[in-house]
User: Which sequence fits this backbone?
């Protein structure tokens, strides 16, 4: 099983025409949630291109996703849920740094957001962020 090591989560706002990201914890200013982590070295995992998903549960208990249809669903730990962001990585049994930007079709609200990182149908890392 792969592991997402040292996940960090930030609320970001974009400036200069979308080229510069600025960290913010104010819900009304957050445009996307940025989840950064390292997929750790694993000598026995299969090599190749792997999709890594980020699932976000908002303070009101709802999953954030672009649109609630089967194209935005992911299996994990024997159940299914919607993902907020996806990044394909080329895994070669070595550490890979990953950044996933997760948008929200609705405005972000203040409160605690729970983050799960999923690969190979298993939760490989967890984190959270609290927006003001």
Assistant:
């Amino acid at each position: 099983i792969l592991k997402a090591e040292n996940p960090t989560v930030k609320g970001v706002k974009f400036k200069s025409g979308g080229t510069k990201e600025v960290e913010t914890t104010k819900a009304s200013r957050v445009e996307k949630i940025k989840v950064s982590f390292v997929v750790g070295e694993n000598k026995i995992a299969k090599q190749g291109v792997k999709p890594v998903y980020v699932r976000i549960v908002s303070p009101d208990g709802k999953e954030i996703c672009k649109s609630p249809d089967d194209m935005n669903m992911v299996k994990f730990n024997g159940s299914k849920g919607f993902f907020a962001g996806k990044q394909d990585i080329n895994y070669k049994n070595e550490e890979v740094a990953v950044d996933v930007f997760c948008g929200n079709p609705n405005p972000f609200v203040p409160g605690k957001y729970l983050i799960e990182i999923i690969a190979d149908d298993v939760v490989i890392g967890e984190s959270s962020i609290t927006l003001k």
